[in-house]
Amino acid sequence: MEKRKDMRLPDWMLKENENNEVVLAVGKRNKNNFLKKSLRNMRAVICEDRQTEHYARCEGVLQKVSPQIKLLAMLGLILTVSLSHQILFLLVVWLVTLLLMQISRLPVWELQKKIWGFIPLLTLLFSLPVTLNIFMDGTPLFYLRQSALAVHWLGNTWPEGLFITRQGLTAAIFLFLRVGISLSLGILLVMTTPVVDVFRSLRVIRVPELFIMIMEMTYRYMMVLLLVSMEMFEARCLRTVGDLPMKWQRAQAGSSIAALFARSLALSEEVYQAMCARGYTGERLKTSADEVDELELAVRSQWV
To answer: Which tens digits make up the pLDDT trace of 184-222?
Structure first.
């Protein structure tokens, strides 16, 4: 009985931490931990890949269309959008993409936020200087600065007034819409077609067979290496106690990159040997998707 009385938690584990500011500070540093950030980003990439494959196999309208026809149609629409000079036509094409996303059972609102919230917006920000009369002459739309005299600065003579031109603003809007709609059409193709079918449909536009095979293998084994690296980071995170100094985090990042590079070299050698064992002679292997998946799992199991 006396031994049972002694088997209790020590006093330091029962004490409450009185310094709450220190706890908050440590919590903030943990959010910036290299291992946790890497794991979170790698999980996000894998989840997006799985989600894309899920939507590509849903019972939607575009999912039932031949990949070759979809590829040619999307390329034709992207070319038409890039050459169009009518904002109304661009808006109609954008509405058509929304309708196609809806009838293909895709998350329309989430995709629109991802599409228009980064690349087109960044393109618009970079094109804003073109709207000024300094870079493109045109009809004044509204003035930013008015002056009766010309300004001499940096060895150049600047115009009396600084204003946004109608032609420059129209060009920036066209560029914004073209980039966003072209990106929407590309995502619509990828989200409604399995990745393997997208690669194989490139034969329609006369892409070399060897180039298609390289892209397929790169995509597949990039996912394999991503899973291996995620498991490696999870193992290291479980063996790490507390918050590491920035110096040690940089050392961990360097060692992880070196270890992953060594594993990728060994994995590529294993993949090549497995392909040679299956009769690879420099041409594309005529294997089914299930056989390729089995080969991928077999090679990955040797390094996990």
So the answer is: 999 999 999 988 888 888 888 888 888 888 888 888 888
The residue ranges of DSSP E strands in 92-169, in sequence order, are 140-145, 151-153, 156-158, 162-165
CB neighbourhood size of 124 (10 A): 17
Cα–Cα separations (whole angstroms), residue 205 to 115, 202, 210, 214: 26, 6, 14, 17
Question: CA 248, CA 256: separation in Å to the nearest integer?
Answer: 12
- CB atoms closer than 10 angstroms to residue 98: 16
Predicted structure pTM score: 0.70
Closest CA to 191 of 88, 287, 105: 105
- Top pLDDT among 257 and 16 is at 257
Tens-digit pLDDT profile for residues 40-85: 787 888 888 888 888 888 888 899 999 999 999 999 999 999 998 8
Per DSSP (E only), the strands in the chain are 140-145, 151-153, 156-158, 162-165
The residue among 225, 220, 227 whose CA lies nearest residue 39 is: 227
